[in-house]
Amino acid sequence: MASSAITSGSGAKLSSFVSPRCSYHADCSPNKMLLGRLDVSHLHIPRSLKFCENSLPGYPSLTVAGGRRKYKSFTVQATSVSRPASQPRFIQHKQEAFWFYRFLSIVYDHIINPGHWTEDMREDALEPADLNDPDLTVVDVGGGTGFCTQGIVKTVNAKNVTILDQSPHQLAKARQKEDLKECTILEGDAEDLPFPTDYADRYVSAGSIEYWPDPQRGIKEAYRVLKKGGKACLIGPVHPTFWLSRFFADVWMLFPKEEEYIEWFTKAGFADVKIKRIGPKWYRGVRRHGLIMGCSVTGIKPESGDSPLQMGPKAEDVKGKSNPFLFLYRFLLGVLASAYYVLVPIYMWIKDQIVPKGQPI
Would you state the pLDDT for residue 67? Predict the structure, then answer.
């Protein structure tokens, strides 16, 4: 849990507790949540967290369920990994990300996705989105080359799906895919969506939040564009704990902690917030290096209209002049970090092949 799960202004680290019986499966036994311990007997926690094992061993699911309960030894405080707009990670700056993906789009589906975002992971991550009606109106925000959209159109009519991304080079790849020919494809900003309020039945965003300078603003926009009862499904990275992976993650792009996702969704006004952990099968549940696609977060919009969260104007300046030497330095550092995260899944795959099954890697 994060500050969203406790009274305003309070904080502590996520704690370890035994959850109630899983809300997904009747036959699940209580499991331990991976949180850290702090006494917060004076705090009220308005939502309980529950989780269960999903289809990938080692990747449990977290649920923020309704009900006001008081816990005496567990809470949370998350130090936010967001940064001011003046100090973005490399691809959290939209101009720099534009040029970075100008080149990466060439190999994205063939080099990047196989190590971080497989078809099996996509199906697993989209399952909580309840894309079970062909007539649903769906927006895929940060849809890029359309890899996630291809999972959406398996059950939803492509003519009802809109792909939005800030990169014209990524979208050019999406336009080439036969199963996406009937989709509407738009250039746009995840933090300022070109859709009316109460527009869509489903909001999906996969592999995009890591580029947002202000993730809370993007999730607030997700709330706004959904109809009452609509569901948002955001699939994104999780923060690493291993020191070298953490260094490269923090200079490259946003790797949120799980409790931050819960905080952002809850502050935006979403109800029934849930987190489902995902990851490549060959990682065997290992999360210390972080995951570029590590969780699927869902929430339901309980009321019509805009989000109850009030925010000021956007702070990011994407039109101002930039220092070319600073840009080059950040570009090279970003390339180095991305190369590291290309090698991590290869390293984990080799360990999976060498270490006997059933043993930790």
Answer: 34
Distance, in Å, from the CA atom of 188 to the CA atom of 162, rounded to the nearest integer, reads 11
Report whether 204 contacts 138 (CB < 8 A).
yes
pLDDT in tens, 301-343: 999 999 999 998 876 555 555 677 877 777 788 778 888 998 9
The full set of domain ranges for the chain reads: 1-52+60-79, 94-300
Which residues in the chain belong to E strands, given as ranges? Answer: 48-53, 60-65, 138-141, 161-165, 184-187, 200-206, 226-238, 271-277, 291-300
Q: Which residue do the tokens 């939040």 mark? A: 209
Q: Is 163 exposed, middle or buried (0-12, 13-18, 19+ CB in 10 A)?
A: buried
Q: Cα separation of 158 and 178, whole Å?
A: 11
The alpha-helical segments, DSSP class H, found in the chain are 94-104, 113-116, 119-126, 147-152, 168-175, 215-225, 243-252, 258-268, 324-354
pTM, two decimal places: 0.74
What is the homologous superfamily of the domain 94-300 according to CATH?
Answer: Vaccinia Virus protein VP39 (3.40.50.150)
Going 254 to 119 to 361 to 334, the CA torsion angle's sign is negative
Cβ-contact 355, 361 below 8 angstroms: yes
pLDDT at 320: 53
Burial 206-219 (b: 16+ CB within 10 A, else e): bbbbbbbbbbbbbb
